[in-house]
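User: I'm putting together a small comparison set for a docking exercise, and I want a reference complex before I start. The sequence is below, and the ligand is beta-D-glucopyranose. Could you produce the 3D structure with the ligand included, as structure tokens?
Assistant: Of course. I'll restate your input first, then give the structure tokens for the complex.
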Amino acid sequence: MARRLAFALLPPLAFAAFVRPAAAEDKPPYLDAARPVEERVEDLLKRLTLDEKLLLVHADSKFTTAPIPRLSIPQRWLSDGPHGVREDIGPHDWRPAGRTDDFATALPAGVALAATWNADLARAYGETIGQEALARGKHIILGPAVNIHRTPLNGRNFEYFGEDPFLASRMVVPWIRGIQSQDVAACVKHYALNNQEWERGTIDVQVDERTLREIYLPAFEAAVKEGGVLAVMGAYNRFRGQHACHNEYLLNTILKGEWGFKGLVMSDWSGTHDTREAARNGLDLEMGTDRPYDQFFLARPFRDLLDKGEVPLSLLDDKVRRNLRVMLETKVLDGRPPGALNTKAHQETARRVAEEAIVLLKNDGTLLPLDASKLRTLVVIGENAVRPHSHQGGASEMKTPYEVTPLEGIAKRLRATKVMHAMGYKSGAWSPDNPPGHPDPETLVARAVEGARQADVAIVVGGLNHERFQDAEGMDRKDLSLPGLQAELIRRVAEANPRTVVVLVSGGPVDMETWLTKVPAVVQAWYPGMEGGDALAAVLFGDVNPSGRLPATFPKKLGDSPAHALGAYPGKGGTVRYEEGLLVGYRWYDAKGIEPLFPFGHGLSYTTFEYANLRVERPREPAAGRPPVAVVRVDVKNTGPRAGAEVVQVYVRPVAPRLPRPPQELKGFAKVLLAPGEKKAVAVTLGAEAFAFYDPAKKAWVAEAGEFRLLAGSSSRLIRLEAPFALEATATLAR
Ligand code: BGC
């Protein structure tokens, strides 16, 4: 219709120009970007031979699939993820490809992004990776990674968004929308229940249905339903006996059936184990299997089954459709924009995320923020003060143009202060194969203590790194302890100089029992990416007021955390039973009355906030869409001397639920920036889903009528105001 109208209005000359030249007329429908994607998919599908179809469902190198030049289908490039665009690997082994043009912006780790509680930053994070992926010629980025922190020991927690399904869901959606706005597909991983690295390729996870739905799936569900994610990566582990990469229930029933996922499911690298299951149970793209490419499960062996008529061709067609759909949705056949790599804007995003991620865990007295003008001498202690991290970490490793270390960031920030560095501890320094002449651990501590004695202030930058059994892929931590003599180092430095700040670089909690009371200030910096040192300095010297909040509980001791308290980690005889059920993270501590070291949602500021006037409104129903059920409003005032951001957290507490429920659950939050003295009315909207639980009998989410308390606070344990709320009608939520 619009076209015909245009004809009518065009003068004769313009009409001539409108007629497409013969070549364009010949363009097959699938190459016509103006046509609907589904039409193009069907057109392309029918042009593919059987062998060409098979090429689209498995890899032809470590991170690519084969091109089909006859049909203008390019080689498709996948890349890790999730903290930026990884350097090129392979093609046929895990060695770096040795290019010189594959440096990229290293953003802070996933757990750090979650600690910002800022969805706008998640969007910027996704956009940044999208632009860099375009510039690097990548079509699919293997991220975000959203497995729930079930145990603080999981070696990959640093990549994930913490222990809470609601927080993870709110952060994953903008991440995905951001990257996909750049015509690059996100691949959310690892679906599902990959909550430990121990025996990750074989472990069988047994978890009840409600816990699966309420704790482990929501971030994936939000990625699919709200984020419109185009790809999903299966996990290594098994679920109820079957590998997650070809798990009938997870992939066919839930992901593609209930959630209506139309994109592609890829395997994790070497996560495919069986041709029949891969063919039937929803795997659409096989990657990384340790065999010749034509022997991949979805290559020749799949073809054999098709030839024998053991599986129908429609199964292959469905997989191909999904691969083509992702290609066409991301304009792979239409020409994508050039993108941009390592821009100032990207570095700025990396820095903003790092700044907002930093959590001020403890600040007794007034040591922080440090006053640069009054510091004559400063000693910065610790290997992590001078150690970059972005280039390590397994799949998430990055090749960065630079990484500002904490020492560099701090030294840059200071003009007239003498800055000293003492190593204090060194990874591997306690190893028996210590090279001769290398200072032994005791000497490192003694030198640092000497430095602390001479300085006005000591900053110990410790924590973990990406070496084996720390924050590392393929293995879990063995316990919460700080490696080597770090705990002793902190104690002795603090004795020598009471003005000691501890900065922890890590993906999660560490044991602080023997030193926490001896130091006035502790800062959690996570893995802050390549702008991390500047971000840290900005927080330490008060240029930035910290506003990060913990996305996971920090326990006093490992045995307090649910899976460990129950002896339900790492499993026995190849099976791990999630015996804590719904009581993951703060849900457990709250239910059992265990005091955490630092609770979920905790984070201090250099200013103070006052909450007043909590009110709950029942909005009138809008004409369409799922109506909000309650709007929680609270006035938040900055009562201190500095501008700062508060994260208002809204928890819902069911008063007398029919089925057992966690005492309180995060269901909304808002981050609000306030000038000194400024007051804002903060509104958090709750839909019916905020009150709902998964009813296994009804196989549905149900919000049951009844009494609730709505809590507004600065952490899960610092509830400032609360109000009763009655849900009047029971609602079964539509899928
Ligand atoms: C990891 C994935 C990663 C893939 C490709 C696997 O070992 O589990 O997260 O995307 O390798 O590097």
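The mean pLDDT is 95. The pocket of beta-D-glucopyranose is lined by residues 80-81, 142, 189, 268-269, 395 (CB under 6 Å).
User: Thanks, that's exactly what I needed.
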